[in-house]
């Protein structure tokens, strides 16, 4: 079932699914959404606190559930990431969302929610969040999110990378934060990777831990049957006292280059200002050539 594109005058909600956030933190994001002609409804979790979290698990569950079930709310934004979404996923009821789908937006810790929705057959938007919106250096990320929400075509072109593996792939786009993808394996949020275009990103991880997760995914058979692989930004990486000796590009090629699908490196998605919106669960065409890479999402027919 297609998700209706937003229209000016629609109401959208902002909730805190993970780490705490204040009203001041999201003020610029609210202003930007209002500049798009949207009415913004703030959840009870904005400004709430339970130590690290934006309110207790019970409050975060209730707040998100009310937004999911409110027919007047046409899209829901996670205010920020951090940690905490997996603590509430199994307590949520998505039955009304399946009947009346709406856009769910976020990234980082929200990867688990994107996967959970994909497992239910629902699309969502991996994109910037109100905490980060409205900044001078996030204008492109903000604009691609607006395009996704309002049903405008999404097609990206990025420069060639010397280590890319060329080819063309067609498949549904899935993925997100590498460590979260590993953490949800075996849960109700787990997804099938076969025939999909997988995108990966992460922040602040040790090189050896990224390699450990890639090895785990490979041993599970998750990397072998992809249609294509989009490697986003692995920012603020850390190393051990004894250097690991491989960067992320080298790890990806070591574990995936024999499988025959196209691989694009340095795609602008992740914990960076230029975090382009991606439609999780939507079919796209990935074309990796010597001249550059394009990722073009299929336009859903009304």
From TrEMBL:
Residues covered by the LD-carboxypeptidase C-terminal domain: 171-286
Statement: the UniProt record of this protein carries the keyword Hydrolase: yes
Alphabetical UniProt keywords: Carboxypeptidase, Hydrolase, Protease, Serine protease
GO biological process, one term: proteolysis
Single GO MF descriptor: serine-type peptidase activity
LD-carboxypeptidase N-terminal domain ranges (all copies): 12-127
InterPro entries in the cross-refs: Carboxypeptidase_A_C_sf, Class_I_gatase-like, LdcA_N, Peptidase_S66_N, Peptidase_S66C, S66_fam
Active site per the UniProt annotation: 108 (nucleophile), 201 (charge relay system), 271 (charge relay system)
Coiled-coil blocks: none
Family under the similarity heading: Belongs to the peptidase S66 family.
PANTHER family named among the record's database cross-references: MURAMOYLTETRAPEPTIDE CARBOXYPEPTIDASE (PTHR30237), MUREIN TETRAPEPTIDE CARBOXYPEPTIDASE (PTHR30237:SF2)
UniProt protein name: LD-carboxypeptidase
Taxonomy of the source species: Bacteria, Pseudomonadati, Bacteroidota, Cytophagia, Cytophagales
């Amino acid at each position: 079932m297609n998700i209706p594109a937003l229209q000016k005058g629609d109401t959208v909600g902002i909730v805190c699914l993970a780490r705490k956030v204040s009203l001041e933190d999201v003020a610029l994001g609210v202003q930007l959404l209002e500049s798009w002609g949207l009415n913004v409804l703030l959840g009870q979790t904005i400004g709430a606190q339970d130590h690290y979290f934006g309110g207790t698990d019970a409050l975060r569950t209730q707040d998100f559930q009310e937004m999911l079930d409110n027919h007047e709310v046409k899209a829901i934004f996670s205010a920020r990431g951090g940690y905490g979404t997996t603590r509430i996923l199994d307590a949520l009821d998505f039955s009304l969302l399946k009947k009346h789908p709406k856009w769910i937006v976020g990234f980082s810790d929200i990867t688990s929610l994107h996967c959970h929705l994909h497992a239910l057959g629902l699309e969502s938007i991996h994109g910037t969040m109100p905490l980060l919106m409205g900044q001078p250096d996030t204008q492109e990320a903000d604009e691609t999110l607006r395009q996704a929400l309002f049903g405008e075509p999404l097609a990206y072109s990025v420069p060639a990378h010397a280590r890319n593996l060329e080819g063309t792939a067609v498949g549904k786009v899935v993925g997100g934060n590498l460590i979260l993808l590993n953490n949800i394996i075996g849960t109700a949020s787990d997804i099938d990777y076969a025939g999909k275009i997988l995108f990966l990103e992460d922040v602040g991880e040790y090189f050896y831990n990224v390699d450990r997760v890639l090895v785990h995914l490979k041993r599970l058979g998750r990397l072998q049957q992809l249609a294509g692989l989009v490697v986003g930004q692995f920012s603020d990486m850390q190393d051990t006292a004894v250097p690991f000796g491989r960067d992320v590009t080298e790890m990806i090629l070591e574990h995936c280059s024999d499988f025959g699908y196209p691989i694009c490196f340095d795609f602008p998605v992740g914990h960076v200002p230029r975090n382009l919106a991606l439609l999780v669960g939507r079919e796209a065409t990935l074309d990796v050539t010597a001249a550059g890479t394009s990722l073009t999402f299929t336009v859903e027919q009304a």
